[in-house]
Amino acid sequence: MVQWSDEERTIIQDIFSKMDYEDVGPRALARCLIVYPWCQRYFARFGNLYNAESIQNNPLVAAHGVVVLHGLDRAMKNMENIKSTYADLSVLHSEKLHVDPDNFRLLADCITIVVAARMGATFTPRVQAAWQKFLAVVVSALTKQYH
Questions:
Q1: In whole angstroms, what is the distance from residue 20 CA to residue 84 CA?
Q2: Which residues contact 115 (CB under 8 A, 6 or more apart)?
Q3: What's the whole-model pTM score?
Q4: 3-state secondary structure of 18
Q5: What does the domain layout of the chain look like in residue ranges?
Q6: Do the Cβ atoms of 82 and 141 come closer than 8 Å?
Q7: Is the four-CA dihedral 49, 52, 54, 60 of positive or negative sign?
Q8: Which CATH class is domain 6-146?
Q9: Residue 124: what pLDDT?
Q10: pLDDT of residue 88
């Protein structure tokens, strides 16, 4: 079980209280699909993903990016038991979708970049440490079924 300090909890909750899901989610997922094009294979049903512009303007990419962020919101609300919260998603992604587990880390990095850009100078090293710890726990929970 992960131990969270009061400061870490406050930082994570503060980030989510200011989160623009409709902007951050689509931008983070689009960034992941552009920077790591091999991740596109899981999104074949999304249609045109042939170049950066088509990915950034794809409504299915945008919608799924919002879904991903709301999934992170679930983790924030259940910080004491993120692995249990994500048990079904871990099974889905490993057994049905066969997602390479490293892709969760890549997407987490893209989310961090977008969040950091939005937060600017307030994304201090202390904030980054708490945020990356949170995302590392989420990634671990999502990859639990793979172990």
A1: 26
A2: 15, 19, 24, 28, 123, 131
A3: 0.91
A4: coil
A5: 6-146
A6: yes
A7: positive
A8: mainly alpha
A9: 98
A10: 75
Of 30, 33, 55, the C-alpha closest to 42 is 33
- Closest of 144, 139, 83 to residue 112, by C-alpha: 139
pLDDT of residue 144: 76
Q: How far apart are CA 2 and CA 62, in angstroms?
A: 31
Count Cβ atoms below 10 Å from residue 88 Cβ, excluding itself: 10
**What does the pLDDT profile of the chain (147 residues) look like in tens digits?**
789 999 999 999 999 999 999 999 999 999 999 999 999 988 989 999 999 999 999 999 999 999 999 999 999 999 998 888 877 776 666 667 677 788 889 999 999 999 999 999 999 999 999 999 999 999 988 887 655
Quote the CA–CA distance of 6 and 11 in Å, as a whole number. Answer: 9
Reduce the secondary structure of 56-111 to three states and give it as a string.
HCCHHHHHHHHHHHHHHHHHHHCHHHHHHHCHHHHHHHHHHCCCCCHHHHHHHHHH
Structure tokens at 84: 């249990």
Are the C-beta atoms of 69 and 77 separated by less than 8 Å? no
| pLDDT of the residue at 101 | 80
